[in-house]
Q: What sequence folds into this?
């Protein structure tokens, strides 16, 4: 993890502690409860999702409470109980794992409360809707970015590793399915060598750095690409590469289009990432929640099988990001030029960020 990334996580964690994990409007009597997963695995939950969900709920004119479980499954269940006691008609939730989330959903269902899976699918759950991105497509973009980077470097028989997301997160499974669909055929035909393939528990960036350091040691310090499932893990790998004088020489993927991630793209430490329009995701989730409260139907564009049933879904389209189109993320208003370009203004200008 970069120093800057660590600071962001620390600030987010502090903010959560100070606010009691909550942003609410008339939380004593609410219509919609939102449970975010943590503030450590990705900055997005506190820096983007909280704000976009709150804004959409406020615009919709519903009372709400947004809380963060801070990676604690017991806290997740306690928050859900509080929200149910406060009259929530709908829970929007990002699970920590499927089993603990299913328990919350089943309890809510017994009380006539509907649930929406936000970003992460709860396997075998009782959710009414699922809102996310096409997560296999996310993985395909990651794999394609790595392939293009290796091609540009003209590396024969590249040596690669898979630094996968949490084994308890179904999204991580889908991301891997996507990038293996792009890169696996080259591994199978021996045009690429897969040196290591390991998941990182709980998306823990510190653990990811340790795991990657072990991978690099196993590879004898000779690696050409790190297929990492998000920017937190990718930047943790970059920190290890920097210690070994290898940053910029090794292709590294990510996702989330964070400030630190985009800066790393521009400096060449990350080769590619994936931008997901979180504002669109938040708006879609709130539209579904309002429809559930009113007893009406909201538009979906597909279904997703959760292991027991097909869940009506809104699946949004991700965008692959390299140096040439970092400007797309800034033009969309997701990140600010001032934050991304501070100290690297010439790199921004050279890549069309004005």
A:
């Amino acid at each position: 993890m970069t120093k800057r990334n660590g600071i962001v996580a620390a600030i987010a964690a502090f903010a959560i502690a100070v606010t009691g994990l909550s942003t609410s409007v008339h939380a004593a009597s609410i219509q919609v409860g939102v449970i975010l997963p943590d503030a450590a695995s990705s900055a997005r939950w506190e820096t983007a999702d909280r704000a976009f969900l709150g804004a959409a709920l406020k615009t919709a004119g519903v009372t709400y409470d947004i809380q963060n479980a801070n990676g604690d499954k017991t806290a997740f269940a306690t928050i859900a109980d509080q929200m149910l006691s406060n009259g929530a008609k709908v829970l929007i939730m990002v699970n920590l794992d499927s089993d603990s989330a299913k328990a919350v959903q089943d309890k809510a269902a017994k009380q006539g409360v509907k649930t929406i899976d936000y970003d992460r699918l709860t396997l075998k759950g009782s959710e009414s809707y699922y809102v996310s991105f096409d997560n296999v497509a996310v993985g395909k973009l990651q794999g394609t970015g790595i392939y293009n980077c290796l091609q540009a470097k003209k590396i024969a028989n590249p040596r690669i590793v898979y630094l996968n997301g949490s084994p308890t997160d179904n999204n991580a499974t889908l991301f891997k399915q996507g990038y293996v669909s792009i890169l696996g055929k080259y591994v199978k035909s021996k045009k690429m060598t897969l040196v290591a393939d390991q998941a990182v528990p709980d998306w823990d960036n510190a653990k990811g750095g340790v795991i990657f350091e072990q991978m690099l040691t196993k590879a004898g310090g000779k690696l050409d690409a790190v297929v990492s499932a998000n920017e937190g893990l990718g930047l943790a790998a970059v920190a290890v590469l920097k210690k070994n004088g290898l940053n910029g020489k090794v292709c590294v993927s990510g996702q989330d289009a964070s400030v630190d991630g985009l800066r790393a793209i521009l400096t060449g430490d990350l080769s590619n990432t994936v931008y997901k329009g979180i504002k669109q995701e938040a708006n879609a989730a709130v539209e579904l929640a309002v429809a559930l409260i009113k007893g009406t139907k909201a538009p979906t564009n597909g279904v997703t099988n959760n292991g027991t049933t097909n869940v009506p879904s809104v699946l949004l389209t991700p965008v692959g990001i390299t140096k040439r189109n970092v400007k797309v993320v800034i033009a969309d208003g997701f990140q600010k030029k001032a934050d991304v370009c501070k100290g690297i203004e010439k790199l921004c200008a050279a890549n069309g960020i004005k």
Q: What stands out?
A: The chain is about 45% helix and 20% strand.
